[in-house]
Amino acid sequence: MQLIACPHCGPRAQAEFEFDRAVDSVLALDASPAEAVTRLYERENPKGWSWELWRHSAGCGVFLKLHRHTVTHEIAEVSRLDAAP
Amino acid sequence: MTGSRTGQGGIIDRSRTIRFTFDGKLYHGHPGDTLASALLAEGLVLFGRSFKYHRPRGVMSAGVEEPNALVGVGIGGRFEPNTRATDLFIYEGLVAESQNRWPSLSFDLGAVIGLFGRFVPAGFYYKAFLGKPGLWTFYEHFIRRAAGLGRPPVKPDPDHYEHRAAFCDVLVVGAGPAGLSAALSASAAGERVMLVEQDIAVGGGLHRESEDIEGLPGQAWIAQALTTLTGRGVSMLTRTTAIGYWDHDMVTLAQKLVEPGQVPEDGQVAQRLWRVRAKRVVLATGAIERPLPFANNDRPGVMLAQAVRTYVNRFGVVPGARAVVATCNDDAYRTAFALADAGCEVVAILDSRSESPSEIVKAAAARFNVQFDAQVLEARGGPGGLTGLAARLGGQPLSLSCDLLAVSGGVSPVAHLHMQAGGTLNWNETTGTFAPDVPRQNQVTVGAAAGGAEGNSSALGLTAPTGVDARHSFVDFQNDVTLADIDLAWQEGYRSVEHVKRYTTLGMATDQGKTSNIVGLARLAALEGRPVPQVGLTTFRPPYTPVTLGLLAGHATGKHLAVVRRPPLYDLHLEQQPLWLPSGHWMRPRAYPRGDETLHSAAMREARTVRQAVGWVDVSTLGKFEIAGPDAAAFLERVCATTVARLAQGRGRYTFMLREDGIVMDDGTVWRIGPERYLLTSSTGGADRMAHHLAYVRQVLAPELKVAIANVQEHWAGIAVAGPKAKTLLARMVPDPGIPRHMSLARSKIAGVPVLILAASYSGERAFEIYAAGTDIIPVWQALVAQGADLGGSAYGLEALEILRIEKGHVVVGGEIDGRATPHDLRLHRMLNPAAPFIGAPALQRPALQSSAGRLRMVGLESDSPIPEGSMLVSTMPGTPQGHVTGAGQRVLQKGHVALGFLRDGDERLGEQLMAWSPTRNASARVTIVDPVFYDPEGRRYRD
Amino acid sequence: MKRYSSLGLLAAGLTGHTSWPRAWRDPTPRTHYDIVIIGGGGHGLATAYNLAKRHGVRNIAVLEKGWIGGGNTGRNTTIVRSNYRLPQMQDLMEFSLKLWETMTDELNYNVMFSQRGAIFLGHSDSDMTRLAERGDAMVARGLDAELLGRDQVARMIPGLDMSRDARFPIEGGLNQPRGGSARHDAVAWGYARAADALGVDIIQNCEVTGFSIRSGKVEGVETTRGPIGADRVGICVAGHSGQVAALAGVKLPVESQLLQAFVTEPIKPMIDTVIMSQSVHCYISQSDKGEVVLGGDPDNYPTYSQRGVPMRLEQVACEAIALIPALSKLRMLRSWAGTTDMSFDGAPILDELPIEGLYLSGGWCYGGFKATPGSGWLFADHLATGQAHPIARPFALDRFARGTTVDETGAGPRARDR
User: Which member of B562, B663, B665 has the closest CB to residue C167?
Assistant: First the structure.
């Protein structure tokens, strides 16, 4: 079970989090219909490093950006969405 | 063979006697005995029957790798089948039974199958029972009865299981000499150490050996280590198996607090599941000895050499009187010495090597009949034990008589956890062993598990002697997989190691291939003419040893499978003895029957009360969110598909929300309760999803907005008061200016409790939703009851609510809002906000969500007879469904029945007649397609 | 192909079984095939078999990166049923179920298809209404379904907790008598043997690493065993659909997740039917070997690891014991996990991709095993004729752009919600 270092709460078990979506599927509110189809339905689904949104649902409730490997489950980075890139 | 107890030695407590039964017969043993050691000491030879051929089997090992000696243990709800006699420590009153035999262990009719073994090789069922359809169904019935091992438990398990979490710097798995040493050095460095051992005592292989360690006898060394570790506060768990090594160095442990079948002391848990997160894991899991391949190597009396030594040195049991040791390595010589020292005659040591220069072999040659270039070809004997063996000695046949054959084919390091953690293995061609190579997590393997016992192994033990009867040389003992089965699989092209495993069932028995996998692999490699590592390995997966589902479940099963959510008025409802309706995890009153009323008659009475007088219903479970801040309206315009921005303070309106794909997700009302403050309601069942949805929009899609969200679902309890006399009832409790107009709100007090009153109607009648803090709601309900009685009012439940909303044509989440319907389908599209970029708007532009052709549209259905809910809409019966009924009910005040449903292009088919057909319930109704608002379509009744 | 029969087995037994030939050959790949199928699971092998058997295409290769049947074909809970709610899914799965009923004979390989009934339990009146709706939809479309009352369910599944105060009390069920289970490995092996006998080259340990595409048309594949030309290529790679399609520059509406399952130690017969539930998410059956087979919800996050979280298995244990309390003392023996390509409406994708000659059968989520024969039949039909069969048409790729998704559960576009 993965250990995710929440920037607010510290390292916590995966059980406290829920995966929300891959970052590439975030659909802006003012997107065009074509963008909606691309974002929602045409996906990288990477085997390897992936940028993902997880939410610390059973913790602080904050959405976090993870750089996570989908084969080894290594987590290289966990950051708040408003953190400087 | 007749086993017997030695006069002294071992770590059993000879001062005490434990009584237990096996197959109804009383036996005796000592504390520290396993069921196997105690029964061996009592002279028992036959322990069980194999899976397929029902061959007689004895004890092969002294540990968790045991494939043969499986028993059912315990009584009633504690009965546990397939328990290894070698891993079951006896206790007073233990009740065990043999398995997979009928009528008895010694006389088993199933053994007949063994006589026909030649006709039922690996994979025979794939080739048989072909031809007539139904033939398989016929034979399968018998095959299922012949298969399986123990009898199934039938009663609920009375035991309790507990889950715990733990954290440490170093987790040491295995408390043999390597594990103890690792724990000693880690604790000396001040690290927080957990040490776990599957056995009842720490010490591991030291209990088997008689040699000194670091100048101390084994037991003394163990005692010293224990004292030191205890002094350093090391957490030590015995009878605890590391069953799984998961991501990021989390290891799950299964701790037995009592033995299988044993009754725990009052209130104590039987087993505990630990989730340990360690910074570093030391795997000191030892090695497991392998049997030798030869004909009838499964006969009772053939045992692993280390197991024999364990029985002698640890349990004080000599499992035979005349022993032969067959080996390919030096280690098994220790068994010869142990046996001889315990008074057993050692007939010969047959060594398949051509020589060995080691001291122990020299010493043995001086004392025993040691033969090199010697290979066992066949064991002789039956259910009653071993009588002898046939061997080949430098090309010459040799026959020996014996009642115990101690075999060693070398050892296999226990690399399971290392592999579960994602590590790799390294093959040693000389010793024939896989040992851990590259770790992937923070793991290190030490001792015999790391290959430390490789010196005691030899690849020779993996190869069957030429000319051996492959059809009776067993590899996987429990599943009766022989060398011939592996050969056949290979011959037929099942050549991947996984194909061989699945075709023959090699390694799939309850011992999980602990003794068989490498032997089978070596046979396959020989057939392929390739080195073992190129043939590959099957995957190692949790659990290392089987664990009960009860342990995995812990407390969160039975009544505790899911939480029960009770609204604050629950106790008050309970006094009325209502019928309850589960709504998600919430328990809500469905109806309050009086006298001999049924659900239906009670609900109809309640609904009439609402239409004719006044009723009140608990709506506390609705989703409720407070949205506050300068940008609250802008935020809501992104969440809601309807306009919100122009909502005046103190006003509210109906709204609905879309998923990102443009499909309707939920609906509710939105109220402006302050200048920059709104209350948004949603369905009960969708409340958790809505909370997540709001957080997503707030944090991810619109982080620039100045807005805060509070989930007040459980803070505010609510009561809806509805009916033509609702205003009258309210007027009795709050001053007139405090009664809001339709879709307006007011703040007031009822029974001294501050309340928020929202004038909104779901039933179609004049109605108010009264919200108060959940802690304060009870007096409000009581006031309604007290003041409403003489108005003819009463409480109503969800069933009446459903009848009323259907008659009014309101959609509901889980009914018409089914995760597939668009705003158009639900006839909500005229309310869509034409301007704002709300979530779901872009995807809603997709062609099929816009055009109406062919889509299921919501319609109303009228009938003279009851319309089955969920039934299919067809032209004739039988017929192809053109739609279905989502919710149905009786008209409240008039005759007739109404329903809501979906019909293909339904909005263009008003007036059409169809059948609502429920073939599974043998019910139907002729229905007319109508507009879905059956009651007061002009909306006169709920306005002022 | 040497035919299998009980008599043949007896005869071979007398001569030590030395006469059984290889079930399939181990051919060297040719330089060009009419059709190449990527993926030697049940779906790919069934596709190749149907191409050869029904369409007369004999110059076919199935390329498998590992060993045949080693993906989700060998990692599922072997449940076969067609008890779906939506007509598109019913038509697809019923088409498949009918093929299951004749598969053993057609392949001359006992796949042990066992129609022991598949029962969905209902735990409330609303559950029962939903089950009745599903059953009505099935019967109205010619499928078999029967609504069961409490007593009937209790008789058919001894050991169920029938107490009224259970957390999810059992009110009844919906049975599909023709549903059941099969021996998963045998499906791959049976199709492989039958396809091989028709001349199909089954090439194991051959991973596709790229496509050869010219002017928008596929011309072959690059593999770890060299380039192989092909007029048409079909992709049947389950959890790796997205990865293989990406080699051709196509992005799919799928997310790869993980589904865990496990078996208990074998015991004598205890559970005679396939058990599922409307409110409790586990599913339970007992194999012919005696192992109780258990599964539940997927690990709903993207992963190709085939390593899950322990709580998933624990949750399944909680649910199974709540339904059948006596399961508590059985032991989990073996767990496994498969990588599933979760599509964004929960339905499969059967279509030609935007590259001419490149076809996909994917997005089967965690329900692909039961569809194996139907998928193979329909996909072969599509590959051979260039036209989608009417049953396959609702599963076109462009349904996502058009908005005609087939959302059986109404869970919406995010795989994690399924």
Answer: B562
Quick one: CATH architecture of C29-81+85-108+184-254+345-417? Answer: 3-Layer(bba) Sandwich (3.50)
Residues B863 and B944 occupy one common structural domain: yes
Domain that holds residue B235: 161-284
Calculate Rg over the CA atoms of chain A.
Answer: 14
Alpha-carbon distance values, B562 to C82, C269, C322, C326, C352 (Å):
29, 29, 10, 19, 44
Return the residue of B nearest to A57 by Cα: B692
Are B15 and B108 contained in the same domain?
A: yes
Interface check A73 vs C, CB under 8 A: yes
Residue matched to tokens 């309106």? B653
Q: Report how many Cβ contacts below 8 Å link chain B to chain C.
A: 344
**Pick from A21, A44, A70: CB nearest C303:** A70
pLDDT digits (tens, 9 = 90+) for B314-373: 999 999 999 999 999 999 999 999 999 999 999 999 999 999 999 999 999 999 999 999
- Enter the pTM of the model: 0.97
Q: Note whether A81 contacts B699, CB cutoff 8 Å.
A: yes
Model pLDDT for residues B379-432, shown as the tens digit of each residue: 999 999 999 999 999 889 999 999 999 999 999 999 999 999 999 999 999 999
Measured between beta carbons, the chain B residues lying within 8 angstroms of A14 are: 247
Q: Are B531 and B429 in contact (CB under 8 A)?
A: yes
Evaluate whether residue B312 is within a structural domain: no
For residue C8, list chain B residues with Cβ-Cβ distance below 8 A: 127
Range of the domain at A66: 3-80
DSSP element (H, E) containing B601: helix B599-612
Amino acid letter, C229: G
Please report the DSSP string for B149-211 in residue order: SBPPP-S-----EEEEEEEEEEEEE--SHHHHHHHHHHHHTT--EEEE-SSSSTTGGGGT--S
Q: How far is CA B712 from CA B661, B680, B716, C106, C217, in A?
A: 27, 10, 6, 61, 57
Give residue limits of the domains in chain C. 29-81+85-108+184-254+345-417, 118-178+256-339
Q: Which CATH superfamily is domain C118-178+256-339 in?
A: D-Amino Acid Oxidase, subunit A, domain 2 (3.30.9.10)
| Pair B582, B677 in one domain | no
Cis peptide before B133 (omega within 30 of 0): no
Cβ atoms of B297 and B311 within 8 Å: the answer is no
Mark whether B613 and B701 lie in a shared domain.
no
Q: Is A58 on the interface with B (CB under 8 A)?
A: no
B798 and B900 housed in the same domain: no
- Domain tally for chain B? 5
Q: What is the rounded CA–CA span in Å between residue B12 and residue C184? A: 48
Portion 155-184 of B in contact with C at CB < 8 A? 155-157, 159, 163
Contact A40 C253 (CB under 8 A): yes
CA within 13 Å, CB half, B924: 16
C329 part of contact set with chain B, CB < 8 Å: yes
Q: Is A10 on the interface with B (CB under 8 A)?
A: no
Residue of C nearest to B118 (CA): C13
State the complex-level ipTM. 0.98
Number of H helices, E strands in chain B: 24, 52
User: Do C72 and C41 touch, CB atoms closer than 8 A?
Assistant: yes
Flag if B494 and C189 touch (Cβ within 8 Å). yes
pLDDT digits (tens, 9 = 90+) for B184-226: 999 999 999 999 999 999 999 999 999 999 999 999 999 999 9
Domain annotation covers residue B182:
yes
Tokens of B389: 């063996």
CA dihedral (C203, C207, C213, C216) positive or negative: positive
Residue of C108, C307, C329 with shortest CB distance to B130: C108
Q: Looking at chain A, which residue has its C-alpha nearest residue C345?
A: A41
